[in-house]
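User: What would this chain look like folded?
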Amino acid sequence: MKTYITFQNKLIPVFYTTIDKKTLISLKETLERKFVKGKKLVKKCLDSLISIEIVGCEAILHTKHEGDTLALSLR
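Assistant: Here's the prediction, encoded as structure tokens.
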């Protein structure tokens, strides 16, 4: 399935098989926290973010540059 979240004034598609509202809230909080307090590599990934895939309790962040793709734990 697919839904959208707004992150840094961009509409980002989020793909998942099963998800609840708590997971989406956790995803948004994690992205905002990483954008503010994350290391340079994480910030670079978030700047070129094009989509997110939720797999279990992890978010796979897909970017314009395949080498920048990153996995974040949502717990």
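The first strand starts at residue 2 and ends at 7. If you want, I can go into more detail on any region.
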